[in-house]
UniProtKB/TrEMBL annotation, chains A, B:
Belongs to the DSD1 family. Signal peptide: none annotated. Pfam families: Ala_racemase_N, D-ser_dehydrat. It comes from the Bacteria. The keyword S-adenosyl-L-methionine does not apply. Keywords: Lyase. Residues 244-335 form the D-serine dehydratase-like domain. This is D-TA family PLP-dependent enzyme. It comes from Mesorhizobium qingshengii.
Length: 352, 352
C-alpha cells in the first residue's frame, strides 16, 4: 500500500477516520434535535462521501450547481436539493432531465425565476417542489420580507407543474436567532394565507450546533462539517485534530531564518481566508503560519520554536477547505501515513 | 458559428484580437529595447497562445510547474524555462525526461536544490543550465546577497551535468530600479569570480514597460500582459478596453434596488484581489462592482446609473486573470459576439 511519502506535492490528504467521525457527530446531533440532515457536497465534491453521508442518515444531498447534481445523480444519489435560482433555457432543460431521474427540489426568490420554472415544468402528475429563498440577514439572495415570500409561494402553488416546497435560507454566520425569527414570521404569514410550510431548510456548519428541536428549521445543509478547517476551528466547531483535510507540501526554499517557501500557493490553498489572518498553518511546526501566497509559492513565517528544512514535507491546514477541494483533480484518503485510496474530485470545476 | 449567447454561464471569454494586440505590443517593446521575451504561460495555460507568443518573436516560454512544462512540451513548445526549485526524486526524474526532449533551463536558490540537480543531471555532453534565483526585494524565494549568488554559481559551475545559466529574479512590483541595482552588483561579483553572466531574467507585467536597453536584464517573463485585468489597469498597463479576458455571467437574483447577484462567485472569479477593492467590475454597467463573493454567488453593488435585470448576461473583468484561468476547464475565443473556438485549458490544475 502506498504511503503519503510516495505522493507528489502539493496534494490533498483526507484523514478518512476523521471525516467519518465528523459525519457521525453531525448526524447524531441532527437526530437528537429532530433535524433532517442534507449535507452540501460543495466541500468534498465526491460521490464517495455523499454516499457515506446518506448511509449515515442524511435525507439527501445539497448541490449548488446543476453540473454537480448531474455528477451525483450519475453516481446513484437519489435525492438532491439545488438551492439556486436556475435561469435560461439550457439550464432549465438540464434541470428537467434531472427531475425525471432523481427526487429533486429547487429554490426561487423572484417571479423571473418562477416564470422559467413554470414554463419548463408542466407535469401536474410530477410536480417540482420549489422553496422560496429568504434573506434572513446574509445579504445575498432571497426575498426581503415575509410578504414577498407569501406572494412567491402563491405563484408556485398556482403553477401546474410546481409545488410549494417550503422556505430556504442561508443565514448570516452567528445570527441564527435572527434567521429563526424571520422564518417563524414567514411561516405564520404563509399559514394565514392557507399555505402549509412543512420544510424549512437552513445551512452553515458553525450554527448547526446551536440548533435545537425548538427551532422552526426542519432541515439543515452543512457542508464544511465533514472536513473542517481553520475557519471552523476559529468558530469553535472543532479543533485542529478534527480537521480531516490537509495539503501536503514541500519546503522548496528557506531564504532567511524566519522565512520558508512552500510549493503550495494560491493555486493549492486559495486566497479565500474567510476573514482570518494568514492562509493556513503547518501541523506540528510550532509558530509556522502561511503569511503570504502567490500562485505557486506559499510564504511561511516562522515566529516560534518550529524549524523547517529545504526538501521537508509538511501538512497545511487551510482556512477554507471547500475552495481547496475545487483546485485539485484528486484527493488521497489516508489512515496515518497509509494512502487508502486516491479519488478523482468528480464534481470539481462544475461551474454551470 | 456559435455566439456568446449560446454559451452556458459562467464562462470565460477571450477577445482574440485584443490578446493578439497585447502580444504584439509587448514583443515590439522588447525588440525595441533589445530584450528577449519569454512569456509566462501561467496566465493562459494554453499551447494555442504559447505558440502565438513564440511565433511573434518570443525566445521560448516560462512555466512554473513541471506538469505545465510537460503539457507545453507535448504540444511542441521547444524552449522552456522553469524558474522554480525542483526537489525530490519523482520531480527530478520528470525534469530529466523533459531535458531530453526540449531546451530546458531551471533555477536554484539553495545548496539543497543544487545537490538534487547535480545528482540527477550528470551528462557533461548535455548540461542543464541552472540560473541562481535572487531575492531583489520581493521577499519570496532567492538568495539574499550577491555573495550567496556567487557561491551557488560556483557550485553549479563545478557540477558535471550542470551549467551556470545566469541570474533570475521576480522583482517586487514597482521596485524595478532596486532589482536592477541588486542584479548589477551580483553580475559584477560574478565577473570578479571569473564567472560570465550572460542571461539575467526578470519578470512581472507592470514593470516590463519601464525596462530599457540600459538595463542589465536580458530576458523578461511577463505573464498577464496577454490578457490584462483590473490589477494591470490599476497599474497603468492598459485600459479596460485592452482586457482580453472577461467572465460571462448571469444575473440570478436582484433582491434590493442596489444589490444584484451573479452566478459567478469565488469558484469563477477567485478571491485573489491582488489588494484591489472589489472583486471585479461589469462592462457597460455604470457603477456596478462585484463587492462580495461566496463560492457560487457574486454580489454586485449598483452605486451608479447602471441597471441590471434578472436573467441578463453580463461580462465581468476580474482583478487577476491568471487565477481565473485555472478555475475553468475551457475558454472561448471570441470576435465580437462570435465564438471562434472553445479550447480546453490544457495546463490547468497542474499542481505538481
Amino acid at each position: 500500500m502506498p504511503t503519503i511519502h510516495d505522493l507528489d506535492t502539493p496534494s490533498i490528504l483526507i484523514d478518512a477516520a476523521r471525516a467519518e467521525a465528523n459525519i457521525a457527530r453531525a448526524q447524531a446531533h441532527a437526530n437528537k434535535n429532530g433535524l433532517k440532515l442534507r449535507p452540501h457536497i460543495k466541500t468534498h465534491k465526491l460521490p464517495y462521501w455523499a454516499k457515506k453521508q446518506v448511509a449515515a442518515g442524511a435525507v439527501g444531498i445539497t448541490c449548488q450547481k446543476i453540473g454537480e447534481a448531474e455528477v451525483m445523480a450519475d453516481a446513484g444519489l437519489a435525492d438532491i436539493f439545488l438551492p439556486y435560482n436556475i435561469l435560461g433555457r439550457a439550464k432549465l432543460e438540464r434541470l428537467l432531465a434531472l427531475h425525471r431521474r432523481v427526487t429533486l427540489s429547487v429554490t426561487a426568490d423572484s417571479l423571473e425565476t418562477l416564470e422559467g420554472l413554470a414554463a419548463t415544468f408542466t407535469d401536474a402528475g410530477h410536480r417540482l417542489p420549489v422553496l422560496v429563498e429568504c434573506d434572513t440577514g446574509m445579504g445575498r439572495c432571497g426575498v426581503q420580507t415575509a410578504g414577498e415570500a407569501v406572494a412567491l409561494a402563491r405563484r408556485i402553488d398556482k403553477a401546474g407543474g410546481l409545488a410549494f416546497g417550503g422556505l430556504m435560507t442561508y443565514p448570516a454566520v452567528g445570527r441564527a436567532a435572527e434567521a429563526e425569527a424571520w422564518l417563524a414570521d414567514a411561516r405564520q404569514a404563509l399559514a394565514a394565507s392557507g399555505l402549509a410550510c412543512e420544510r424549512i431548510s437552513s445551512g452553515g456548519t458553525p450554527d448547526m450546533w446551536r440548533s435545537s428541536d425548538a427551532s422552526v428549521v426542519t432541515e439543515y445543509r452543512p457542508g464544511t462539517y465533514i472536513y473542517l478547517d481553520r475557519y471552523q476551528v476559529a468558530k469553535g466547531v472543532g479543533t485542529l485534530d478534527d480537521c480531516a483535510l490537509t495539503v501536503l507540501s514541500t519546503v522548496v526554499s528557506h531564504p532567511t531564518p524566519t522565512r520558508a517557501i512552500l510549493d503550495a500557493g494560491s493555486k493549492a490553498l486559495s486566497s479565500d481566508t474567510l476573514g482570518l489572518a494568514d492562509f493556513g498553518e503547518l501541523l506540528g511546526v510550532s509558530g509556522a503560519r502561511v503569511t503570504g501566497l502567490s500562485e505557486e509559492h506559499g510564504t511561511v513565517t516562522l515566529s516560534g520554536d518550529g524549524k523547517l528544512r529545504i526538501g521537508e514535507r509538511v501538512r497545511v491546514v487551510p482556512d477554507h477547505c471547500c475552495v481547496v477541494t475545487n483546485l485539485f483533480n484528486e484527493v488521497n484518503l489516508i489512515d496515518g501515513d497509509k494512502v487508502l485510496e486516491t479519488l478523482p474530485v468528480a464534481a470539481r470545476g462544475r461551474t454551470g
